[in-house]
Amino acid sequence: NAGVTQTPKFQVLKTGQSMTLQCAQDMNHEYMSWYRQDPGMGLRLIHYSVGAGITDQGEVPNGYNVSRSTTEDFPLRLLSAAPSQTSVYFCASSRSGLAGVIQETQYFGPGTRLLVL
Amino acid sequence: RKEVEQDPGPFNVPEGATVAFNCTYSNSASQSFFWYRQDCRKEPKLLMSVYSSGNEDGRFTAQLNRASQYISLLIRDSKLSDSATYLCVVNRGSTLGRLYFGRGTQLTVWP
Question: Residue B99: pLDDT above 60?
Answer without folding.
Answer: yes
